[in-house]
């Protein structure tokens, strides 16, 4: 059995480092955004873009965390991939909401999670243009700017405000549009905010009743799903599965059980 005081101290350290790394990266992104910011490269499709600032942010975060914890592993959207030997791995989205950032829309975030032996134990999502940083430590609740947050009590599905997002590949988007077409008449409304990490924090803070998306990567969902769960929401994927690339759903528990079978039935794609 691990010594609980040692685990607590480790989680405290990881949280402090994640908060500081996210604060530094957020400041760089907010204050250092070039007025003429353009697309540095495209990835899976012509609309899947990366800017020089995504790369600079990931470099800053991995440099800072690596300096303090040289034996940890890293997984970052822009290429960081280190195995590590300590049992801790950092999962980093240096800019979640790159398209918003490119257009100077405010909804973008830095997302940093720490996994211990494969389980997410710390999550930080900093959204500098909102002036908000959400965080959670496994078993200790969820916070926004240091204040505890809680998911919203579930309304009937017909009164629920949902968030979602769309992948960068055209065939997946076609399937996602079909899901929206079916779901939209059954709910209050559907938002597409442009940052999965912020959407998950919005569930945690009671600003969305639910959020779902297919096609997310670990760096999109690691920190945000912990924050949503620690705020009392339920998170998961396809029935019996954790949140994953196939499906990520976060909602108050009562809505979760209604939405999960519905989403599972609707618009699946085959990779
Ligand atoms: C994207 C955002 C978006 C979601 C996409 C993600 P990125 O991440 O989270 O809201 O719909 O699926 O890929 O590329 O801006 O880091
Ligand atoms: Ca992302
Ligand atoms: Ca990103
Ligand atoms: Ca991206």
TrEMBL record:
<comment type="similarity">
    <text>Belongs to the inositol monophosphatase superfamily.</text>
</comment>
<keyword id="KW-0378">Hydrolase</keyword>
<keyword id="KW-0460">Magnesium</keyword>
<dbReference type="Pfam" id="PF00459">
    <property type="entry name" value="Inositol_P"/>
</dbReference>
<dbReference type="InterPro" id="IPR033942">
    <property type="entry name" value="IMPase"/>
</dbReference>
<keyword id="KW-0479">Metal-binding</keyword>
<dbReference type="InterPro" id="IPR020583">
    <property type="entry name" value="Inositol_monoP_metal-BS"/>
</dbReference>
<protein>
    <recommendedName>
        <fullName>Inositol-1-monophosphatase</fullName>
        <ecNumber>3.1.3.25</ecNumber>
    </recommendedName>
</protein>
<dbReference type="InterPro" id="IPR000760">
    <property type="entry name" value="Inositol_monophosphatase-like"/>
</dbReference>
<dbReference type="InterPro" id="IPR020550">
    <property type="entry name" value="Inositol_monophosphatase_CS"/>
</dbReference>
């Amino acid at each position: 059995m691990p010594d609980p005081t040692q685990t607590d101290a480790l989680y405290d350290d990881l949280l402090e480092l994640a908060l500081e790394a996210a604060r530094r990266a957020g400041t760089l992104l907010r204050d250092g955004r070039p007025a003429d910011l353009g697309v540095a490269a495209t990835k899976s499709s012509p609309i899947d873009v990366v800017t020089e600032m995504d790369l600079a942010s990931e470099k800053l975060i991995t440099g800072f965390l690596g300096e303090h914890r040289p034996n940890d592993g890293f997984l970052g959207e822009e290429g960081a991939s280190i195995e590590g030997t300590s049992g801790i791995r950092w999962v980093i989205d240096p800019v979640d909401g790159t398209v918003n950032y490119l257009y100077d829309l405010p909804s973008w975030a830095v997302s940093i999670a720490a996994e211990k032996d494969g389980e997410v134990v710390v999550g930080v999502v900093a959204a500098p243009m909102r002036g908000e940083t959400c965080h959670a430590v496994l078993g200790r609740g969820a916070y926004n700017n240091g204040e505890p947050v809680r998911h919203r009590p579930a309304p009937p599905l017909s009164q629920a405000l949902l968030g979602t997002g769309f992948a960068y590949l055209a065939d997946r988007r076609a399937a996602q549009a079909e899901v929206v077409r079916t779901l939209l008449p059954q709910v209050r409304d559907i938002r597409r905010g442009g940052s999965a990490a912020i959407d998950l924090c919005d569930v945690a803070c009671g600003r969305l009743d639910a959020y779902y998306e297919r096609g997310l990567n670990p760096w999109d969902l690691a920190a945000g799903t912990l924050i949503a769960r620690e705020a009392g929401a339920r998170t998961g994927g396809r029935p019996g599965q954790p949140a994953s690339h196939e499906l990520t759903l976060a909602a108050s528990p009562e809505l979760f059980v209604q939405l999960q079978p519905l989403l599972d039935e609707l618009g699946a794609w085959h990779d």
